[in-house]
Amino acid sequence: MDFFSYEDGTYRCEGLSLEDIAARHGTPAYVYSEKTVTDHFRKLDEALAPVPHVICYSVKTNSNLTILSHMASLGSGFDIVSGGELFRVQSAGGDPGRVVFAGVGKTREEIHRAVEAGILMFNIESLPEAELISQVASEAGRDVRVAVRINPDVAADTHDYITTGKKETKFGLPLARGLEVFQAIGRMPRLSPVGVHCHIGSQITELNPFTEALQKIGPLITRLREEGFDIRYLNFGGGLGIIYHDEAPSTAARFADSILPRVRPLNVELLIEPGRFVVGNAGVLLMRVIYIKETDAKRFAIVDAGMNDLIRPTLYGAYHEILPVRPRASRKVTYDVVGPVCESGDFFAKDRSLDELQAGDLVAIKSAGAYGFVMASNYNTRPKPPELWVTGGSVRVARRRETLEDLVAAEMDALKT
Ligand code: LLP
């Protein structure tokens, strides 16, 4: 469940009025609900309780330090894909010993940082990468645990850009080569192959792709054990879908019911890397209508947030619900909701029927907690919005609004020469 709702005619986050938040902190602004994050994390944690498991929250989804610190306080580990994300986890006080590191292009510097930090394990995506990790670990005189990311070649019913378990994608190594890859890695100095990793995609609303992937991975784990590999971990990735519009995604309980019977006989510690499921519906992007513009073809609601702040609608054709903060119970009108950025791709919704809007109105774009702020840019020299964390009945500025000075700071030195 999420903790956003209408009360007394206005849309609220954990009871706090978004009108008050906008008056105090300005727009556009990301607003996150701590209770929602906690609720989603706990639901998954409880559903997986029958097996030994670690939830490794996927940092890329929303990497604000306040969120990472909250995740650590809930007992979460972390899934990272860069040295930068490791730095964030450490800055937030997260335990590097509960960090798993995926990604097809880890550099020597990133590997070095992770080896020194003593992370839980690397998710290896290719043999050249394994060789480099072995080399860096040898130089540092440290043993490292590794899992091999297996690409099970299963289709997931999601956007092409976020499908990762098909054999044509750049991710993982083929199932059929699994044993041979483990044998090669087993011969490399300082590497202990202890796990199998598999992440098939994101915003997956059906259970079949997950169970199909498990059916393929399970026998590999059994085989590896027969060959003498001490496989202790199955990292099953993230991918659980959420409701943006009219999806009917699986609940944590149903996800657990379908995978645990297949995981239990494997006798492994289960790692999972959820991102969207935990934070997606815990955030909204709050914005104000600047103008209503009518042309022969369209009626536009022009808002003060743009594609640079939330790129999902234009990048993936993603649907995000748009709600008036104070609905006026008047008629429905069809709008294109667009931002100020100089591209026709700068839209949040096209031909969307909404309660009638006027200039000055506040609107909230829902389900913006995942892949929202983290994918924001400064395109058109637009400062990034603040991130506001609603906790215990008040608002904490988890990231202040960027200033114009922030935006030019890294370029000023060039003018001084
Ligand atoms: N583990 C790995 C290895 C991943 O690559 C990802 C996401 C996750 C876990 C977390 O997946 P989740 O539980 O959030 O589905 N920007 C896109 C989504 C990209 C997902 C990338 N990988 C979007 O806005 O839909």
Describe it for me?
The chain has 417 residues and is of the alpha/beta class. The chain has 2 domains: 161 residues, Lyase, Ornithine Decarboxylase, Chain A, domain 1, CATH 2.40.37; 170 residues, TIM Barrel, CATH 3.20.20. Helix content is 29%, strand content 26%. The protein is built from 13 helices and 21 strands. The strands form 3 sheets. Strands 4, 14, 15, 16, 17, 18, 19, 20 and 21 form a 9-stranded mixed beta sheet that branches. Strands 5-6-7-8-9-11-12-13 form an 8-stranded parallel barrel, surrounded by 4 helices. The longest helix has 19 residues. The mean pLDDT is 96. It binds ligand LLP. Ligand LLP binds next to helix 10 and helix 11.
Structural domains: how many: 2
* CATH fourth-tier homologous superfamily of the largest domain: Alanine racemase
- Kindly identify the CATH topology of the largest domain: TIM Barrel
Mean pLDDT: 96
Low-pLDDT residue spans: none
Multimerization state = single chain
Shape: globular
**What is the overall number of helices?**
13
Present as ligands are: ligand LLP
Strand content: 25-35%
